[in-house]
């Protein structure tokens, strides 16, 4: 977390949390969801326009990535100064980029150590890492196939609907009683 964010939290500890305004898609892209987008439904609903606007500002994307974490309930958020901006997830809290040499990076740029590989009924690939569970970026699935052929990892099966509960995260965060 950035020092400026820690300082803001200390200065303003009771700023209300924000819900519904930020989404993360299955390719690791951030979306800003204004009131009009939220009125169309959940981020992952598939309704045209419900995702909101794709963020393209590199410095903002980097800032979000550096200040992205989960609360004790498995709800992911971006700490924006003193305010938690909870993130609606299309699939998982992490999206992994896999390199030919086996390096795995999060959509936020941080490296991760692979601990397990999961395949769902639709053929989506998930990596369990020291940072948590995440979906492999669709462009990198061929590298996973190569790694499997080389015996680097052994896949386990999972149903997509079971992934959030199995790995302890929430797709659509909710306000909780007593929360700031």
Protein described:
The chain is an alpha+beta fold. The chain is 21% helix and 31% strand. It has 5 helices and 13 strands. The strands form 2 sheets. A 7-stranded mixed beta sheet has the order 9-8-7-12-11-10-13. The chain is globular and about 50 Å long.
Short recap of the structure:
The chain has helices spanning 3-11, 35-39, 58-66, 141-149, 163-167, and strands at residues 18-24, 30-32, 53-54, 68-70, 76-80, 83-89, 94-98, 104-106, 111-112, 114-119, 125-129, 132-136, 155-157. With 180 residues, the protein is an alpha+beta fold. It is globular and about 50 Å long.
Provide the fold topology.
Blueprint: H1 3-11, E1 18-24, E2 30-32, H2 35-39, E3 53-54, H3 58-66, E4 68-70, E5 76-80, E6 83-89, E7 94-98, E8 104-106, E9 111-112, E10 114-119, E11 125-129, E12 132-136, H4 141-149, E13 155-157, H5 163-167
Parallel strand pairs: 1-6, 7-12, 10-13
Antiparallel strand pairs: 1-2, 2-3, 4-5, 5-6, 7-8, 8-9, 10-11, 11-12
Beta-strand segment tally: 13
Name the quaternary structure: single chain
Please state the average pLDDT score: 91
DSSP helix fraction: 10-25%
Question: Beta fraction of the residues?
Answer: 25-35%
Distance between the termini: 19 Å
Number of helices: 5
What class do helices, strands and sheet pairing give?
A: alpha+beta
Order of helices and strands: HEEHEHEEEEEEEEEHEH
Please tell me how large the radius of gyration is: 17 Å
Largest sheet: 7 strands, mixed
Strand arrangement within the widest β-sheet reads 9-8-7-12-11-10-13
Contiguous runs where pLDDT drops below 50 for at least 5 residues: none
* Molecular shape: globular
């Amino acid at each position: 977390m950035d020092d400026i964010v820690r300082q803001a939290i200390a200065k303003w500890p009771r700023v209300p949390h924000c819900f519904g305004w930020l989404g993360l898609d299955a390719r690791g892209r951030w979306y800003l969801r204004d009131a009009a987008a939220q009125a169309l439904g959940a981020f992952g609903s598939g309704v045209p326009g419900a995702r909101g606007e794709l963020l393209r500002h590199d410095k903002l994307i980097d800032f979000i990535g550096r200040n992205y974490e989960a609360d004790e309930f498995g709800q992911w958020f971006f700490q924006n100064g003193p305010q938690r901006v909870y993130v609606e997830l299309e699939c998982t809290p992490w999206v992994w980029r896999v390199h030919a040499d086996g390096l795995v990076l999060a959509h936020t740029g941080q490296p991760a150590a692979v601990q397990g590989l999961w395949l769902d009924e639709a053929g989506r690939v998930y990596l369990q890492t020291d940072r948590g569970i995440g979906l492999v970026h669709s462009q990198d699935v061929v590298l996973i196939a190569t790694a499997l052929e080389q015996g680097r990892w052994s896949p386990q099966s999972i149903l997509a609907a079971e992934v959030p509960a199995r790995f302890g995260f929430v797709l659509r965060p909710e306000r909780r009683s007593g929360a700031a």
